Amino acid sequence: MQKHACVHAYLYELLQAIVLATDAAIYLHLAILQCLNPSLISLTLLVDDIFKEFSINSKSEDGEMMKKTIEECEKEGILFFGQEEVGIKGEEKYCATSLESMLDFATSRLGNNLEALSTQAQQETARTQEYTVARGVKRVGERKAVVCHKRKFPYAVFYCHKTETTVAYTVLLEGADGTRVKAVAVCHADTSEWNPEHLAFQVLNVKPGSVPVCHFLSEGDVLWVPKHN
To answer: Start and end of every BURP domain (predicted)?
Structure first.
């Protein structure tokens, strides 16, 4: 029991270092979050109370992004605070509203011996530029992974999903101005059950299941993979 607690403490510190280095959002401990107005646990029906709690204009850009986050977590039966949905071919989806709940979801699916990775730039740059993939592409983990995408909200909300057909890589990117980014890329090996209207198929001009679909993770997103000693 003590060893389990120590592992969780180590992973939690690692996770804090990753997300706090890439995002200025407020990361509330689960115990604090659950003491807030009960309306925060509800979603669409009480969204106005959420806006009031954080003094956000519902028609502002931030307000619209918050509503989009709530809709995403509700549209397929995914709810905050522990209710999950089984997706295609064993995929499990979960909306985590604290670092602790994200960590609990990842360890419950992949075990305690985990590695947490995220995309991190060596320095901030305001300009849009082209990046070149440098040498040193490295595969991490096997096909099992939990990917948690940071969503727009006044406090931490991550849209997480566990997959068994995802291959992850760490990639060094070099910008035209010399900026370096240590990026995380994921490749979805099986897209046969994806929505045919998915943006990836439109951009790549391919059909579901015909080719793997790969993309980089944004800063603030977290990839969890089993760690091999």
So the answer is: 9-227
**How does residue 42 score in pLDDT terms, banded at 50, 70 and 90?**
very low
Distance CA 98, CA 95 (A): 9
Per-domain residue ranges for the chain?
Answer: 2-226
The candidate with the shortest Cα–Cα distance to 74, out of 41, 39, 44, 112, is: 44
Q: Angle at the Cα of 36 (from 94 to 17), degrees rounded to 5?
A: 55
Tokens linked to 128? 């849009």
Q: What is the pLDDT of residues 49-101, one digit of tens each?
A: 777 777 778 788 878 887 787 777 776 545 443 444 445 566 788 888 778 88
Report which of 126, 127, 138 is spatially closest to residue 182, judged by C-alpha positions.
Answer: 138
| Cβ-proximal residues to 216 (8 Å cutoff; 6+ apart), any chain | 119, 171, 183, 184, 185
